[in-house]
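Consortium newsletter contribution from the modelling node. Members have asked for a concrete example of what our holo predictions look like. Here is one, prepared for the zinc ion complex that several groups have been discussing at recent meetings.
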Amino acid sequence: MRALRLAALVVPLLLASFTGVLPVGAGAPPCAVDYPVANGHFYSQTGEDTGRGFMVLDDHEARFWTAFQNEGGIPTLGFPVSSRYRFKGLPTQAFQKAILQWDSAKGGVNFLNTLDELSLAGRDPELLAFRQTPPHIALIEDAGLNPATPEGFSKIVQNHLQILTQNPAIQERFESESRWLELYGLPVSYADFGPVQVLRAQRQVFQVWTVDDGGGPKGVPVLANSGDVAKEFGLIPSDAISPVEPPDGIETGELTLELVSSQVRQGDVLVVRVLGSSGPVTISLGSIVAPAVCDAGEMRALLPISSISEPGNHTLQAKEGVFAAPVEFVFSVTPVDYPFERLYLSPEVESLLTPEDIQAERALLESIFGTFTTERRWDGPFIIPASGPPTSPFGERRIYGDSGLYDYHGGHDVAAPTGTPVFASQKGAVAWAGPLKIRGNTVIIDHGRSVFSAYLHLSEINVKVGDQLETGDLLGAVGNTGLSTGPHLHWEIRVLNVPVDPLPWTQPGPLTR
Ligand SMILES: [Zn+2]
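And here is the predicted structure:
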């Protein structure tokens, strides 16, 4: 279940990035909404930001909504790019990555040979001229073979798979899909155009760019959106490709929440998907409130789980508009077995821990960490910002000497000699760079969406407020300033002003993809 959900999240991003020679439309997908309707689902993601879109429905004629889900839904097929229409007499609907045709005899769908149909419609010259797609070629090796016999068909398949050997990268991508015959059909032709290498199959086109500034990432096979190509080259009737108004009853679209990760521990950050919204939504967890924002075509919110939150069930509340009743979602927090430490500080250092100083610094930091901007600046996993062995882990429970002050460790400590370089763990804007009484010389980077990284106890600071940093940029050096018992880097990540475990941010996953 987890893998399926992750895949669902990744695909809209791919659709946005991998436009290639066969584009999906300009720019990133709009953060459009989709929601259940009677006997199906309405999607406005492909409605060109108009609020209109396409419905996928089950009815007496065909059960496209059921079939769409059975065939893998959005990760496999993409969003619908047409309403239902008839093609060669059969109910048909186009999606970004495939065109489905209803087969009443089997009570399910077949995948249309989209590229073959374009060839039959006489569009191969334009596909070659404008979309660098090699034309359909009949294989000499197939002559005399009868595809209706098992032996004939098997030989034809072998002949066509041979085409893949011209490009090992495409071959690997093609064969990694166990349903390749159903989703892609047989390979048909291959051409190396220099900057781009293209494989044409019956239902899909694969491209590999060999240059840096091509239409896709260099050296990585990408799939064209064959449904969009069919639309562009006139294979779909024009009235079927005009987005339609949402059906009446949009306000009854059910707001639902989904967590991207199945397990939630103390110190984690929830990635919440918001489905079925038709306007701005805020998500709250106790006193923490986060707006859902557009992320790769979906509404999402990040909510921090404090390391001192109670294990067990908690309730998220989603609220759309001012008057709507909140929708609740219950999830469970798993406890983490944090270590415990009693710290003895020198009297000089301990004198820093006056309630007044603690309060003053907290207020200053809250004004920084409490900022929310909708732009997401980070991109990929965070790096651990300095070399050295980890010492105190995130979440460690602490008692300071005999003072009775009880606290927990809000960061991840790295032991390193004074002067060791400290690097930005991700892209972002410097929100604070200067001395603090307790935290010492400190740099704070704003990564957007109220995600901040902080670097404490520095001996030197090399950046200033407002600097735009890239991952790995030098920002300062390890030191022993402020409330510190020896040279080390305290690295902290806060989300909505709550310290969270930084290590999950260094891994590929829903937080960092
Ligand atoms: Zn620390």
